[in-house]
Input
Amino acid sequence: MSVLLVGLDVTIINVALPRIGHDLHTTVSGLQWTVDAYTLVISTLLLLGGSMADRLGRRRVFQTGLALFALGSLLCSLAPTLGWLIFFRALQAIGGSMLNPVAISIIRNTFDDPRQRARALGFWGGTVGLSFALGPVLGGALVSSVGWPSVFWINIPIALVALGLTTRLIPESRAENPRRFDPAGQVLVMVTLATLTFAIIEGQSLGWLSAIELSLAAVVVISVALFVRVETHRTDPLMELRFFRSLPFSGATLVAVAAFAALAGFLFLNTLYLQIARHFSPFESGLYVLPIAAMQLIFAPVAGRLVGRSGSRAPLLLAGVGVTAGALMQTGITNTTSTIWLLASYSVFGIGFGLVNTPISATAVNGMPAAQAGVAAGIASSSRQTGGTLGVAIVGAIIAKSAIHGTPSGLDDGGWWFVVACGVAVVVIGYFSTTRSARQSAIDVFRAGEPTEPAP
Output
C-alpha cells in the first residue's frame, strides 16, 4: 500500500501538470519544481529513513512516514500558490522517504530464502505497475471533473488504511547493532543533490556558463569530495562506501538512476505532448498511457521469477532494450502520429521498465547483511529518486526553448533522445555488472564486512 501511494503520486502529478501550470500561472521551471520538490527531498532523506528504521524500529518509522505523507497530501490540495505547493510537496516527501526503503527492509527481514525474497520483491514491483495503472486514469478523471487539488485527496484514505493495517499486522523489528546518526554526511548529500538540481533546472535562465552556474558546479564538486572524505573516516557512515566495491551493487545503483531518469523524462514529455500538442483532456491522456502501467503490472512478477531462477542479467538486459526501443519510437512524433504507434511505444517502454525494478532491489539487499538491509535499500531507493529528479531536470532543460504559449509541447526530439541514452545505459551497465568477476566482487565485499555469515 505504501508503494501504491508513492506510485500514484508520481503518475497523478504528471497528469495534473498542465492544469497546475494554467491555474497557478507558472512556467516550465515551475512545473519542474512541482515534480522535483518531492523527488529531491525524498532522494536526500531516503538513506536517513532506512538507517532510522534499522535503529528506531522499522514499524515505528513506517507508521510515521504514512502519517506525514497523508498530512502533506492534505496540505498540497489546499495550496493557494505555486510556492506553497512546492513547500507542501517537500513535506509530503519527508513522509515518503520513510516508506519504500523501510518496506524493502521489512521484506528483507521477513523472507530469509533468496528465491522467496526475489518473488516477494516481484509482487512489490507489481504493485508499482498497479499504481501506474490507476494513477493516470484516476488522476485524469479527478483533474477533468474536480480540479488538480483532488489528485492529492486520494492519498489520504489509502495512507490511513495502511497505517491501521501496519499497526495490526507488521511486527516491530530493528537492527541488533544500530548505526549512529551522521549529520555531516546527511547535510552534504542534501547540499550536493539540491545544488545539482537547481543548477540544471535554472541553467537555461541563468546561462550555462554564467558565474552563478559555475559557482554551483564548484559547490557540487566540493560537496562530493567532502562527502567521500567524511564517510571514509566514520565508524557508522550514512552511506557504506565499501558497498560500492561490489560491482553488482554499484551497477544496480547506476541502473536505478538511468532507469528512473528515463521514466521521469518519458512521463514528463509525454504528458506535455498529449495535453499541449494533441489537446487531449487529462482523462484522455491517462487512458493513453495505460499500456505502460499494464505492462509493468504483468512483467514485474515475471522479473521476480527470472531473478529467483537465474539472476539479474536477463531481466536487466531485456529492460534496457525495452526502454530504449520504446523511447526510440517516440522520436519524430508529430501532432498527427497514429494512436496505434503511440500505444505500441508505450507498451514496449512499459515492458522494459516493468523488468527493471526487481533486479535493482534484489541486488541491493541480497548481497548485504540483514542488519544493514535498511541502509542498502535506502541507497537503492535514493538512486531511483535521484534518477527521477535528474530526469525531469535534464529533460526540462533540453525542451525549455520549444514552447507553445510558454509551455513546452513535448515535440522536441532532444528530450526523447535523452531517454534513449538512459535505456542504452541500462543495457551496458546491466551487462558488465552481472559478469562472473562482478559477482565475485560482491562476495568479497560481503565477507569483508560479515566474515561469520555465509556469503550469498
